[in-house]
Amino acid sequence: MAFSYISVNLETNAMKKVDKSYLKKKINKLNKKIHRSEDQNEENKTWWRKLKISKLKHKINQIG
Asked: Domain of 23?
């Protein structure tokens, strides 16, 4: 019997629930990484992480 993608249950691959507390946790982790990269003078990493953190803050504001 050949494998069929139709038989795969896609509901088991549900995405992680994203709520305010989850986003705050991610922001805190990014803040730690930003400070570490600033101490190590890694401007590129700092820039990318600040970009990511601004997106997360925007997402929190959308959630309410």
From this structure: 17-63
pLDDT for 32-41, tens place per residue? Answer: 999 999 999 9
User: Which residues are CB-contacts of 55 (< 8 A; sequence separation ≥ 6)?
Assistant: none
Specify the length of the chain in residues: 64
To which H or E segment does residue 44 belong? helix 43-63
pTM, two decimal places: 0.69
In the chain, at which residue ranges do the beta strands (DSSP E only) sit? none
Using left for φ > 0, alpha for ψ between -120 and 50, and beta otherwise, residue 41 falls in left
Domain count, the chain: 1
What residue has token string 């549900």? Answer: 14
Q: Is residue 10 part of a domain?
A: no
